[in-house]
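FAQ: What does a ligand-bound record look like?

Like this one, built around magnesium ion:
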Amino acid sequence: MNAIEISDLRYTYADSTVALKGISLVVKKGARAALLGPNGAGKSTLLMHLNGINLPQQGSVNIFSRMVNKVTAPEIRRQVGLVFQDPDDQVFSTSVWDDVAFGPLNIGLSRHEIERRVTDALKMVGMWELREKVPHHLSFGQKKRVAIAGVLAMDPEVIVLDEPTAYLDPGGQEVLMAILRDFHNRGKTLIVATHDMDMAAEWSDSVIIIKDGATLAHGGTELLGDISLMREANLRLPIVSQVFSHFDRFMGKALPKTVAEAVSVLEGYLK
Ligand SMILES: Nc1ncnc2c1ncn2[C@@H]1O[C@H](COP(=O)(O)OP(=O)(O)OP(=O)(O)O)[C@@H](O)[C@H]1O
Ligand SMILES: [Mg+2]
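The answer part, i.e. the structure of the complex:
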């Protein structure tokens, strides 16, 4: 089953910037897709189409076979949780607690259920202690954690994260990885825009690369080891692959991308 189907999506901003020039792609249910591409490629513009914040000007977006349009957008927003690139666009209530409770309140959950969800979400992202604080006064990384908690509390089928690791400290990144693993284990579909090649290598099972509003490549994680493709997309190899690329014996072969792959290759040589 496909969670996301995008067909020939085009989008031009009011100032005539053509941000998307005909993007078509499919993300299967349960996938962990990494969306990569240089600054200004159109990643955020694309992701904001997945829950109807942006509506297609041309082409179509379907979520579980339902077309996103003005009528379906409110329903689709319950199915697709989006963590914005900039938490200042997302975090606006007078307390951290209220902010995370905003979504669950809007879908009419019981008070008990809202309390349970907000408590769990805040504890999961490590923001429970700061639940009374004004979100506006939080650090950027803390705001990002609150935005993630807001999506967690909605427990959507599809989770879309725009640059989630930016501004998170290493502990926060570990927590995020654990949250993403948990979502995946529960059969949810994940799509993450990131410039963090190591995160993409360690975490994703499929890769979408866009540039200048068009799809450059769409495939498995082997794309992350394609040096010329990475160069074309202003990206770089994962650090692990960079190390192995220095050795002639790996020329023309698939480079290890993750720590686990590197350990397994090195164990082979050390035996
Ligand atoms: N509100 C807007 N009005 C006009 N142009 C915009 C607007 N938002 C984005 N753009 C332009 O659309 C293009 C795509 O921007 P977008 O934010 O989608 O890129 P991105 O791939 O997410 O980049 P980054 O890696 O920096 O987050 C860019 O040229 C950008 O300048
Ligand atoms: Mg962006």
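Follow-up question: can I read anything off the structure? Yes, for example: The chain has a mean pLDDT of 93.
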